[in-house]
Amino acid sequence: MYFTVSIPGLEKMVIKKTETVGRGSFHIHVEREQKSHRCPICNERTNRVRI
């Protein structure tokens, strides 16, 4: 049986993998969409922050 469930807090997440573990346990592997941040060193917008 396939069905869709809305889980609060995961609306903007990308589901990468789901798996059933043991009896009654379900693991969901998620990623967030990458967005730009400010570099703490040069203060410019970037998608990758190096420290």
UniProtKB/TrEMBL annotation:
This is Transposase IS204/IS1001/IS1096/IS1165 family protein.
